Amino acid sequence: MEIKVTQADNSDLKPRPADESQIGFGDIFSDHMFLMDYESGTGWHDPRIEPYRNISIDPAAMGIHYGQEIFEGLKAYGGRDGGIYLFRATDNFKRLNRSAGRLCMSEVDIELAMEGMKKLILLDKEWIPRSEGTSLYIRPTMLATEPHLGVRPSTTYLFFIIIGPVGPYFKEGLNPVTIYVEDFYVRAAHGGTGDAKTAGNYASSLLATEKAKEKGFTQVLWLDAKEHKYVEEVGTMNMFFLINEEVITAPLDGSILPGITRDSVIELVKGWGMKVSERRLSIDEIVESARSGTLKEAFGTGTAAVISPVGQMTYKGEDHIVAGGKMGDLSQKLYDEIVALQYGEKEDSHGWVERID
Ligand code: COI
Questions:
Q1: What separation in Å is there between the alpha carbon of 21 and the centre of ligand 1?
Q2: Tens digit of each residue's pLDDT (9 = 90 or more) over 270-297
Q3: Which residues contact ligand 1 via a Cβ below 6 A?
């Protein structure tokens, strides 16, 4: 399918950030966007790149009323060698299609979506920031658009990709974040939509996160919905714990997001000869190991956050300082390795990195 490109008039081009060190996360968008439409019977059609603009949606669109929405988050990296790199981008679109299956939405043709995304990035490549710690964030999104208020899957969808320069996700940057272990609210239950990247998971996480923020924490660590006992994820990140010499992360058993950075960390750490366990880890075991000093590090992983060290965890009113409140050696090593791969500075023996310009 041919992707039609309509370029913005020069007079409509937006100013790019003057000071890249001030870029936060998710506020700035480039000059163009990719779109395509779906109707049952016809399939996906009219793939196109247009000037970035408001989209027009019927107020009865099912995605607005019943949350049939899925999205992805990935990045393009501007290397110091002038290259533009993608990191495991196909895996994001595969996950998008798995989310589509869970939400009864229509899968996209991965090749077409990747082609549209690359065309968009190259058209707006001047928007890729080049300062350390910055990248171009890419947000593929699908929304149910059929105007209908009965509860059933929509017969029409809009898919779009928007992009924009980002800096660190957390204001802490690489400094350790503080985590509130949530023992009342839950994010997702087994059999639910926790392993799909869909808006509702994030909406349901807001109240607990706002309450934790009021108490001065950066994020909430979710426990399992049934027993409030086993650690799940942080909502914008998967979680890893280094206890003694074992690197532990929650298994992908349906209620947590299968993170691509999570998967990369597992492969890297295994390759370094360390013991990695995808297993249920109780908050009691973490508290015990924090008290006894065997909890060496805790860190979150995600596309937006990369590797985010945890400096403090608070559970039932007890504070536990992790790694002396600093970034631990393993977190630092992982951060350095992943970033070097993503920016094309290190040879990629995993088949993860693609140079697109
Ligand atoms: C990402 O890491 O890209 C995410 O999608 C998390 C988030 C910003 C919601």
A1: 20
A2: 999 999 999 999 999 999 999 999 999 9
A3: 73, 236, 302-304
Q: What is the 184 CA–ligand 1 centroid distance (Å)?
A: 24
Domains and CATH numbers, the chain: 4-166 (3.30.470.10), 177-342 (3.20.10.10)
Structure confidence at residue 239 as a pLDDT band (50, 70, 90):
very high
SS3 assignment for the chain: CCCEECCCCHHHCCCCCCCHHHCCCCCCCCCEEEEEEEECCCEEEEEEEEECCCCCCCCCEHHHHHCCEEECCEEEEECCCCCEEEECHHHHHHHHHHHHHHCCCCCCCHHHHHHHHHHHHHHCHHHCCCCCCCEEEEEEEEEECCECCCCCCCCEEEEEEEEEEECCCCCCCCCCEEEEECCCCCCCCCCCCCCCCEHHHHHCCHHHHHHHHHCCCCEEECECCCCCCEECECCCCEEEEEECCEEEECCCCCCCCCCHHHHHHHHHHHHCCCEEEECCCEHHHHHHHHHHCCEEEEEEEECCCEEEEEEEEEECCEEEECHHHCCCHHHHHHHHHHHHHHCCCCCCCCCCEEECC
Residue 309 has pLDDT above 90, yes or no: yes
pLDDT digits (tens, 9 = 90+) for 61-101: 999 999 999 999 999 999 999 999 999 999 999 999 999 99
How many Å lie between the centroid of ligand 1 and the Cα of residue 288?
Answer: 31
